[in-house]
Amino acid sequence: MGRMKRPSPLKLAGKLLQIREGMGLSQNGMLRKLGLEDDYARTAISSFERGEKEPPLAVLLRYAEVAKVCLDVLADDREKLPKTIPGTKRH
Q: What is the 3-class SS of the chain, one letter each residue?
């Protein structure tokens, strides 16, 4: 039995970049906002935003929380981020 790779959202990297820029944060600032400065380096944010690495689920949850969007908005390529980040409410 072979292992199939889970498909990755194609627009995730762009959405993560859009969140950081929408909040007016540097990559280090995003780490602090996510509360991950002790666990990750700035280069991790860069690799997430360039699509080189996919963030773990716990990191995606933190992005969704700080951006005030639902996780499905990040994970589903059919969903779009709100025009203003952070969003006005999570649903």
A: CCCCCCCCCCCHHHHHHHHHHHCCCCHHHHHHHHCCCCCCCHHHHHHHHCCCCCCCHHHHHHHHHHHCCCHHHHHCCCCCCCCCCCCCCCC
